[in-house]
Amino acid sequence: MTSLGLFFIVTLLGYSTVHSRPAVGHLRNMDSFIQAVQQVEESNHGLSPLALVRALRRIAGHDDAMTVHFLGTSHIYTAAGLETAILNTSTFSFFDKALHHIVTDNGEERGVVLAPDGSTVALAPLMLGIEAGLHAQTEGTPAAGLFPLTLGRTLGLTFLSLQDFPPSNRLGPNGCWDNTVYPKVFKLYWPATLATDAVIYGGMDGIILGTHLVNLAKSESMPPLSEILKGFYIFNLLEGNGLDDLPGKISPKRRELSRSILEPLDLQNKVMETLALVWKLERTEWIAFDTGIGQAVKEGLKEFVQKYWDCPQIIPRCQWGAKPRDGTPIPLSLPLGHLFVHHTYIPSAPCLTFPDCARNMRAMQRFHQEDRGWGDIGYSFVVGSDGYVYEGVGWNTVGRHTRGQNSIGYGVSFIGNYSSVLPSRYTLDLLRRWLVQCAVGGGRLVSNFTLKGHRQAVNYTTCPGDTLFSEISRWENFRE
User: Fold this and answer.
1) With b meaning 16 or more CB within 10 Å and e meaning fewer, what string describes 94-131?
2) What are the mean pLDDT values of the chain's consecutive 10-residue runs (480 residues total)?
3) Of 384, 342, 381, 341, nearest to 359 (Cα)?
4) CA-CA distance, 134 to 139, in Å (whole number)?
5) Which among 120, 262, 321, 465 is least buried, having the fewest CB atoms inside 10 angstroms?
6) How far is CA 477 from the centre of its chain?
7) Of the candidates 420, 426, 347, 418, which has an alpha carbon nearest to the alpha carbon of residue 385?
C-alpha cells in the first residue's frame, strides 16, 4: 500500500492530521455534550431527535458519499433557524469541534469525549448510528446503513490500509486524558490507525443505540436526543447487585451488547460489502484489484473479536491516576500457569463508579508503595463493581500479590470485602469469563492453568472460610 493510497483512505473517512496547539475551552466530556444538546432542545420546543441529529451532521460537515447514500443530504432536512440556534448556543456552542474527529501529528485525538464510566468515545460514529436508527424508525425501513456507518467502513478501510502490518497493530490505540475531572486533551499511546479505541467504542455505542431506536414500538414516544444519551451513559448503581440490577442498555455493557447484535451476522461478508460500496461511491477502483482484501479482513476481524469482544475493557494506569513505578520492573515469562484471586478487604465496600474505583486504585498503590515498600501496586489487575477491570502492573510485569508465587501467575483482586458475601454475578464474570478468556486467547495463560483463591497475600491456598473462595472452588467449568 502506497502512502498516497493510505492518505486517500484517510480522506475518505473524513480524518486528517494537522499540527496545532492542544484544545482549550469547554470540557471534553459526555456531560458537556449532553448539556449542549439539552440546551438546544429547550430553546426549540417540539424539536424531534432526528431533526437535531441531522442538523448536527450538517454543522459537522459529515455529508460524505456513504452517509448521503444511506441517510440523505442533511441540508434537505435542516432548517436554517435550527442551525443558527445550535451555533449560537450560549455556553456550549462547540458542536462543530466536538463532532470533527482528527488526530494531530503530536498524537492528540479530537472529536472524542470522556464518558462518566471512564471510557472515551468518538462522537461522529455514535451520532451516525443514532441517526441511522431514527431514520429507519421514522421511515419504517430496515437500518441498512447502521453497520457500514458506525463500524463497517472504519474496520474495512483499516484492515485494507494496514494489511502488511501484524493483525495486532491494525486496531487502536487507546490513550489517556490530561485530567479526568477537567478533561481537555486526549493523547494516544502510539500512532493511530483509522480505528482508534475511541472510534471503535463510538461505533459500538452507535450500533447499540441505533438498534434500540429501530426496535421501539410505534406506540412508544420517541425520547429527546439528550434523554437517549443520558439513558446509556448516565446511571446510578446500587451497592449489592451493581450492574446485575441494571439489565438495560448502558455503556459498561457495550461489548456484550454489540456482540449480541453483530455476532449473528456474517461480519466478513458485511465488511466486504461495505468496501465494495466504498469502491462504487468513491470510485476507488484500486480497491477492486487488491487480491489480499479478503484475507486482510478475515485476520483483522479475528483481532477485533479478541480485543473488543473476548477481552474486558481495561482502564489503563494513566486513566486512574497511577504514580510512576519505583525501581525497575521485572518482566514475566509468558505464558503462565496460574491465576491467583484476591479481594482487597480494605477498601471493604465495592466501588460502583469510575471516580470511586480510580480513587481506590490510587489508595492501594499508595499503601503498597509507601507502607509495604513495594515498587508499585501489587496486583496484576483489579476488578471493580462498575463493570470494568483496572490495570495494575499489567500483563507483562511481575507483581507482589502472592508470596513466593508472583513470577508464576497473575494476581487479580476484587475491590471489596467478600469474606461473607459474593461480588455481583456480573463482577464475577469480568474475571472468570472475560479476563481469563482474554489471557488464554492472547497466549498469556496456558489453557490448562490453575486457578486459586487467596486473601491478603498470606499464602496461595484456598481460604475455605471465605465466601468468595468457596465459590472459586466451584469454578471448574468457568472457562467453557
Assistant:
1) bbeebbbbbbbeeebbbbbbbbbbbbbbbbbbbbbbbb
2) 35 36 67 91 88 89 91 71 61 74 96 97 98 92 93 95 87 96 95 96 98 85 95 86 84 97 96 92 73 90 96 96 95 95 88 96 96 96 97 97 93 92 92 93 91 56 59 55
3) 384
4) 8
5) 465
6) 28
7) 426
